[in-house]
Amino acid sequence: MAKKVITFGEIMLRLAPEGYYRFVQAESLGATYGGGEANVAVSLANYGMDAAFVTKVPKHEIGQCAVNSLRRYGVDTSYMVRGGNRLGIYFLEKGASQRPSKVIYDRAGSSMAEATTADFNWDEIFEGADWFHFTGITPALGDNVAAVCLEACKAAKAKNITVSCDLNYRNKLWSKEKAGQVMGQLCEYVDVCIANEEDASDVFGIKAAGTDVTSGKLNHDGYKDVAKQLADRFGFQKVAITLRESISANDNMWAAMLYDGNDYYFSKKYPMHIVDRVGGGDSFGGGLIYSCLTGFEPQQTIEFAVAASCLKHSIEGDFNQVSVDEVMKLAGGDGSGRVQR
Amino acid sequence: MAKKVITFGEIMLRLAPEGYYRFVQAESLGATYGGGEANVAVSLANYGMDAAFVTKVPKHEIGQCAVNSLRRYGVDTSYMVRGGNRLGIYFLEKGASQRPSKVIYDRAGSSMAEATTADFNWDEIFEGADWFHFTGITPALGDNVAAVCLEACKAAKAKNITVSCDLNYRNKLWSKEKAGQVMGQLCEYVDVCIANEEDASDVFGIKAAGTDVTSGKLNHDGYKDVAKQLADRFGFQKVAITLRESISANDNMWAAMLYDGNDYYFSKKYPMHIVDRVGGGDSFGGGLIYSCLTGFEPQQTIEFAVAASCLKHSIEGDFNQVSVDEVMKLAGGDGSGRVQR
Amino acid sequence: MAKKVITFGEIMLRLAPEGYYRFVQAESLGATYGGGEANVAVSLANYGMDAAFVTKVPKHEIGQCAVNSLRRYGVDTSYMVRGGNRLGIYFLEKGASQRPSKVIYDRAGSSMAEATTADFNWDEIFEGADWFHFTGITPALGDNVAAVCLEACKAAKAKNITVSCDLNYRNKLWSKEKAGQVMGQLCEYVDVCIANEEDASDVFGIKAAGTDVTSGKLNHDGYKDVAKQLADRFGFQKVAITLRESISANDNMWAAMLYDGNDYYFSKKYPMHIVDRVGGGDSFGGGLIYSCLTGFEPQQTIEFAVAASCLKHSIEGDFNQVSVDEVMKLAGGDGSGRVQR
Amino acid sequence: MAKKVITFGEIMLRLAPEGYYRFVQAESLGATYGGGEANVAVSLANYGMDAAFVTKVPKHEIGQCAVNSLRRYGVDTSYMVRGGNRLGIYFLEKGASQRPSKVIYDRAGSSMAEATTADFNWDEIFEGADWFHFTGITPALGDNVAAVCLEACKAAKAKNITVSCDLNYRNKLWSKEKAGQVMGQLCEYVDVCIANEEDASDVFGIKAAGTDVTSGKLNHDGYKDVAKQLADRFGFQKVAITLRESISANDNMWAAMLYDGNDYYFSKKYPMHIVDRVGGGDSFGGGLIYSCLTGFEPQQTIEFAVAASCLKHSIEGDFNQVSVDEVMKLAGGDGSGRVQR
Amino acid sequence: MAKKVITFGEIMLRLAPEGYYRFVQAESLGATYGGGEANVAVSLANYGMDAAFVTKVPKHEIGQCAVNSLRRYGVDTSYMVRGGNRLGIYFLEKGASQRPSKVIYDRAGSSMAEATTADFNWDEIFEGADWFHFTGITPALGDNVAAVCLEACKAAKAKNITVSCDLNYRNKLWSKEKAGQVMGQLCEYVDVCIANEEDASDVFGIKAAGTDVTSGKLNHDGYKDVAKQLADRFGFQKVAITLRESISANDNMWAAMLYDGNDYYFSKKYPMHIVDRVGGGDSFGGGLIYSCLTGFEPQQTIEFAVAASCLKHSIEGDFNQVSVDEVMKLAGGDGSGRVQR
Amino acid sequence: MAKKVITFGEIMLRLAPEGYYRFVQAESLGATYGGGEANVAVSLANYGMDAAFVTKVPKHEIGQCAVNSLRRYGVDTSYMVRGGNRLGIYFLEKGASQRPSKVIYDRAGSSMAEATTADFNWDEIFEGADWFHFTGITPALGDNVAAVCLEACKAAKAKNITVSCDLNYRNKLWSKEKAGQVMGQLCEYVDVCIANEEDASDVFGIKAAGTDVTSGKLNHDGYKDVAKQLADRFGFQKVAITLRESISANDNMWAAMLYDGNDYYFSKKYPMHIVDRVGGGDSFGGGLIYSCLTGFEPQQTIEFAVAASCLKHSIEGDFNQVSVDEVMKLAGGDGSGRVQR
């Protein structure tokens, strides 16, 4: 029987000019839907898991479009609450070469940002669930939503459900101080932590020496150190850190490291020609949860998660549209891109 | 020298599925910009007038797109204020046959909705101006914006600038009671009033017997009565009432009436096959202002305004993209649509 | 609790040039999915019912796209079988004015056309179901599929599930003789029969005098007669007949009649400006099933079904994307198409 | 063996905004190719005739695109000459309702406008030909091209090839006086003349009383008179006159009359909902030539030509994409637009 | 006078999502046409040769589209047979970075797959021909089609027409054993053989040591060995082997080797940034045939063929849209991609 | 107060197939507007300068579209003259990998090419201006336009306005001899000269040893020599030379050198993955003028100009759509392309 995973967060309307057009040139905008935890849910549904996404969306058609975008890929939307005033929006301009991608958020006042603990019945939602996932973006939406997160974490722990969190710091949503305080409280309930070095530093002030994220150079020992500090402080069973080297908006190197409390497992490193970078980290989370629930060995776990997210970078939209077979094939070594007939 | 017209209100990002697709089917959304008073400004710029639009938009690229959409057609945007958090949005689904068009507003918290009197220097804005126009939507955005409207009206009157107002009642924005109170105060400063029968009834409780807007039947005597009541109560020099008969989402009849305090002038009635109905009323306002500033006779005035807005219904987007020549030709009687080579 | 409806048939990839382009002009083809019974399932899911669609699709991505197209709108796809070689295809060219729409079928050898009784476990499928629906297209796919239909009908009857059938004769799939023989057998199990006059004549040789479908003239007494003959021969509880008058590819009149064994109920007649005519009959079936399961009175039943299908003609694609509220509003008399803000 | 028809004229790049967008709104332009005589050649190739189009196009890729647009539909392009500087262009904006379609020509200096008698070997071109067709647009391109026309007409006559001419007056290209003089000379060689009332009046000053083309009213007796005057003056064997009533840019009535020197044959009149009106007259010419070469009776001839051109109005682009069967079906009376499966 | 080349095989409808969209994301599919031998014919027509493509397509409009796609580029389609039930289809999803392109074939039951020797009169087809080309895909369609191939080969030999064959093994169509048996018989008539290392191994079990196609490493000595074995076994005059190194779905290295029975000629190697990889091998075949018929020296022959196919990888669709001049310029050393004004 | 810059030249309609499609494949063409000096004006307006573009365009809608394309981005179009017959056109096919981009000009007979000194009142235009810019393309349009250039240069000098010129040799427009003669005269008035090595050689016969532009190798000493020769011959205050290394149509290296009469300043060199290469040189000119008018130091000047034009290569269309902040950020060293949220 398929494992059941619950993810909780905001899903937004994503509006993006076609191709490499800039905002000021666009006469139409691609309209898709996404958000950290929703993206993870789609990844898992595509792997055949029983993934449910929990959020609050407005009752009108735009809210319904967000629901449909998830149903289309098999995500269970029966716990999604209807109400509130609007669906959060983000505008995305795809970068190229030296020109970076640009995101403009328009999410204030969204149904999810105004959700409260009264909106969700976690006992019912967690019935039969194996895993609960959220990211640092969700509690950043406001104290009301952080309170929902806390309630969810407690309910999950009470049912012995594994809890994972992607730190995902967003400086437009809250200060580092506030983030550190709120996330510190939530991390008490977290078993598996996902981060990149910036997150650990921004949220908890945990730094690794010798790494400058804009320089593109990475320091493996530093990452080990960050992972260990995180695990030691919060008692995480696992810490996974993604390693991105940004050569240009088109070309990135991608790898990751897993710390299981004992050892450090570094994945292969992939040179990626990027189609769409947004949701890259979420697809890593999806791969990691799948691997853990499937019982992969640590090295296999990190290879699967990295291969999955490497493939995501070749796919338009927030969602990772790949199967277990496709990830396995890449993790197994075939990145030649030869036509499959 | 071209006459100078100032219009004041909100400009929004309009997001609409292509053709007759419903919201739930759309994978991309046409992204244009519009709003009652902005639409009037574009009409006037297209007629060769010196039209300036006053509003407040956020500093980011989406706000800039709104500015550019107006500059493109020659509207003076130098009085537009930058600041605030977001650009208002409206989603538009085009109806067909018995299925009505649908508008979903997402305008709360917009830069304009949070603008205050401190944002605008009306003495500077009205320097050399001949006309000031706003609609009932603008004060409905909030007491703060109503206060700006009042200040603008007073400044206009102090400079002997003609003031026009399109009542344009929006029940999603305020109650009839509130509308009646605020608009009543503003109408003291208005010289030219534009309305449809519903507006007069919704805002001021002024009704004409025997007309049911959903039945598609119109009552000319009733309209005369409404116009006279409006003029008598507020001292309007002119009252123009648009007469729409809705046969289906594709087919409407369109006409209007002008009351100049003495006589009632009914325009020709046009059977319209609709391309885009939004902005139809605004294009009437633009035609009316042009006619008045150009010194047309009353019958010519109403014929020009109706022909202009009839043409608008054949044009995609909020803006009326027609020249004086094109309007004159239709007002002069050629609605045969024969190819012009 | 929502009523549960099972529909059974083929879902195809629909490939259609954009707008009014002819096949020989098309450089791209809109790719949607549809088929008589799938369309009914989407209608019902959009009305909030628990609708499941049963079919067989190939295991590859194109088959998955068909599944996703239904999941997106909330149809239960858990009974869809994977296997076989291909997804049936139909090419659709939209007509205009005097030029008719054109359909080219490419469905031979499809997974569904080669499905057998071994593929479906009707006892499981019908667990908790209230209604079973199929059309005359499904048994026409081949003797193997007709055998599945028969098995399904028997299983439905054994569980006291209401069975409806839309006769839907397709001369490309089978002869009138064959159709009459197979459908005659299946109709023994049918409670609610949907047809147009051509169907009754083509399948069962039941004719009404004085009607020529290409002339656009309809004969109400003839329709009564056809309905009564059908009910008398097969013991149908209800017979619904759709009445289409084709003025041109763009303009049709649309109405229907319901016979409940006692009386004949004629709906209002709608003049339709057509956006997409395909799936019009299926949307009538969806409206009828909803009405019956909701317990509407006969006149309300036929008005709902006709209003629902009238709206379908204004919507792109096979699926009817309307809510109960929208249908109710039109059935209640507002076909003016005025903008809803 | 298929009849061989030679047509001679200019083919242009047609640049048109999508749908009903105005020029000033367009960010992309549909790029197709067309021109009076090229359109006739495509009509005939689609009917299975051996149609060759003669012109001169530049050697670059845009010229090649024009060649390819004709080859694609089976037109023989082996007599097309390469050279000169540019391909003529016309910009087309599609009208709607009361807003007329608009054509902007940018054809000066085209390869064809600068072609001379040295470019064409008519003896070779006419080898085995049955019919030669040109329009009044071609000699209007300049004295050099008029000289080529004259040479072609003489060569055709020398080989007993039937010559047809569509008068097609274009006031942007030449004056009425010049047109009358040049066309008068060419018409000496013409057997079959095609015109609308405006053409006869503009080119030869031949008028029918009581017809006002912008009023939409037609006067049948007047048309008879015009046809007879034309035949009497130039000795035409046949004169065909198209009868368009323009209700709006979307809706036209369409019919025609044939005079064979003895009798007047009026076709049925079709109410058309227009998809693309450009090339409507050319498709009439194509239908007429097909009918004549096939040996249809006069009434059948005019019905075929009118049905063919009625269908053209439902098709995007200059070319008439219909088969003989489709035309026959409409001419035979089925204009109901019912789906063909 | 242009050389005449006959190619024989299947042409399919190619349906591909735009850009890098996956199948499950696509709402429309680009509709083009292609197939190994059709692609070669277009290459040759674009080089100015007299290329005819022989196949069987259904009589309906989709079949006609395939004909038109070839006529558009000047291929002689007069030997194409009409009949049968359907046009074969292939679905193509373009890969990116580590994600491979994916092809789903839906070609069973196509008109061509059911063609028989009765459909083709090779004596007539080969009248005046200089070259006959087919690929291993064609006999793989079925014994009936293999029989046609054999008949064609014999007829070609009887007229001293050069015969070329691209081995092109497709494991979805037949087993290696079957392929070896049928192709072995056909190769008796072949003068020029085109292959990649996989083909030689798959079809005839001829292997070169030390090459792993998924590793991207190539072994030049191995290729020499394969070519010699092929020539020795079947008496080929020339064997050409393409050498692809797949770095990713976006980046490939491309080169080839020609063996003329005496010497081995290796081309330059091109690093390619891929726009569309499908048809790459066919464009090599087209370049090779052109070179041979033009009488190029061996080194020039292989350089032309490789440069031609290098350019193909920069072009959308199956067909190679390049001129002799463009190929010559690249073969001559200018691969800098500088703008040509 | 913003600096005022006047640029003078031709603006053309740019027609380009989408993505990497070749001309012969295109069914629609993106329609944007551009031209050397217009592109510079947009660059400067985007930097917040008061930029006016001077030219002549036809009175019709296509001419208006060119005006609107500039107004949209804030360029002052009040000095644009209306008249003449047509807007110049250029067709652009985007290259990929080894396939070069291709430009077909269709600009003969344009309104601008036929403009005369009577069309422009330079005293009025230069009122309050700080800088005047033109390119070598403008005088190449004809002696009449060269005369306007000369008049403009003289008027600028009389007002102490800085004059810049980008040599920009176009061999389709004039011979090297003619160019040398006319440009030599104009350069007497020029203060700042922009060139690439080819320009200096083509126009003035000034060559640097050891550089072969198609080989992709650059010789820095040679460039110094060219700059010095140019400055010595014409007395330029500054000479800026762009250094492009063309690896393929997708990948270029980009840098530049500034000579200020004393020293040579080489910029960083950027590896660019190209989105649209057209307008690259113009964006360099825009960056250079901004830097000079802002008073940047020489090294900062060349870094800003190169970073600005590097970013241009990542943007669709002729215009450089970047802000001062974006250029500064890249010039300051962040080319990592990391997402900006």
TrEMBL record, chains A, B, C, D, E, F:
PANTHER family referenced in this protein's UniProt entry, alphabetically: 2-DEHYDRO-3-DEOXYGLUCONOKINASE_2-DEHYDRO-3-DEOXYGALACTONOKINASE, SUGAR KINASE
Q: Which SUPFAM superfamilies match?
A: Ribokinase-like
Keywords, sorted A to Z: Kinase, Transferase
Family, similarity comment: Belongs to the carbohydrate kinase PfkB family.
Q: Does the keyword Kinase apply?
A: yes
Cleavable signal peptide: none
Q: What region holds the Carbohydrate kinase PfkB domain?
A: 3-312
Pfam families reported in the protein's UniProt record = PfkB
Could you tell me what this protein is called?
2-dehydro-3-deoxygluconokinase
InterPro entries attached here? Carb_kinase_PfkB-like (IPR052700), PfkB_dom (IPR011611), Ribokinase-like (IPR029056)
Q: Recall the GO molecular function terms of this protein's record.
A: kinase activity
Look up keyword Kinase and say if it applies: yes
